[in-house]
Amino acid sequence: MKQVLIVDDEPELLLSIKSGFEHNGHFHVLTAENGRDALDLLDRNRIDLVVTDLRMPVMDGIELLSVMSESFPEVPHIVMTAFGTPLIEKQLKKAGALNVLDKPLDIEALEMAISKALDVHEEQSRSLFGLSLSSFLQMVAMEEKTVHIKVFHPSGRNGSLFFREGELIDAEVDHLTGDAAALEMLAWEDTRVSMKEFPSPAPGTRMQSELLPLLFAAAKHEEAYGHDEDFSNPLETARQELARLKEEQYQPTAPTITLTATGENMGIKDLLKKMADEMDGVLAIQVTGMDGITLALHNPTGADVEAFSAKFAMVMKLVEKSVDSLKGLGELEENLVQTKNAWILTRFITPQHYVGIAVSREGTLGNMRLVAQRYIEHLRKLLAKPE
Question: How many Å apart are CA 361 and CA 372, to the nearest integer?
């Protein structure tokens, strides 16, 4: 059975994950509460996959991944974080993360992500190492093989090359086919390859050039222009972005927002649209009173939110009372509802008003939280003024 190491500084979450996977027949779960403990477990156990949070004491997730890249490069990893942004996700995947998951986690979705990552890594582990892609393709041609070659890029992209009796007859990657696809893959660095049987039926010929001219063209382009790769350290870039977000988190009123897009009299609705522009997958964003009346709404999908607003105000009252009944928790900051297809985040602006944001699961939960926090003071000031 595969062994998966989950690293997070929340013991309750680790317990929940471990109990949720008790009857899983695909993998067994080990847990650690920081990066240093995780490295100890990696030293003493055969670990097939690491799933790690980023913000942790003692040793955070970024440092753990940095050490793993040197000492355990063969162990694949998934990152989970409540502070994900498109930049952080891009850098983590560039550094080799198979997936970046938003917290809070859905246990079923996490199980599916782990199973998929294990399957992908197992397929890649059967790949052939030690040869450049161009050298490997020349070997395939010389041996006159009929084969489907899968090419894996470190970022997670992959493509296909099809040979029939040593002749390159087709290539596919993303939306590219033929010569363009082959040249794209030949420009990749640090690729892994694996061989499969032809699909049935075998593809037809879509190549305009033979293999040798394509290899010459790729080599000539590299000599003339060098690599277009960004050689900056992606984990360091992710660390800097996390540090920036942390500083911003404790300075929500920092002067990073300009309200003069429509002059000093920018209204609440204009500000909601400005917030929506900073997020992906926005379904609706609104400011609603605890009486259920919506004061301002940005509704790019045209959804009927009137009845929802009235009922959700009742939910907010119940949640607030429930939190108040548990002494020592402090004031309610945000309420998060997760559905199969969306997240709904609400935050109080004043005791009488809250902002509600509905974002599809295509969006980034961490970014939605940061945007809501960053704009809350500006919404409060606008509510203090007559519209």
Answer: 17
